[in-house]
Design brief:
Elements lengths: L5 H23 L2 H27 L4
Helix pairs in contact: 1-2
Length: 61
């Protein structure tokens, strides 16, 4: 295994937490919570993919 890219660990943990928040919001029947959690997940995943493409283009991956 090569060097750990800590930024991707952070992105994955944030995505995981937003998925947990979706489940908790569903359990609480909170529509605003569900929508906010889904939006947060989309934003975090988008930044993760954007960062990965940027690092790949720079030759860091």
């Amino acid at each position: 295994m090569k060097n750990i890219k800590w930024v991707f660990v952070l992105f994955s943990l944030l995505a995981l937490l937003s998925m947990f928040a979706i489940g908790i919001s569903v359990g609480l029947r909170s529509v605003p919570g569900i929508l906010a959690s889904i939006l947060l997940l989309i934003v975090v995943m988008g930044f993760g993919f954007k960062t990965k493409k940027k690092m790949r283009d720079q030759g860091l991956l």
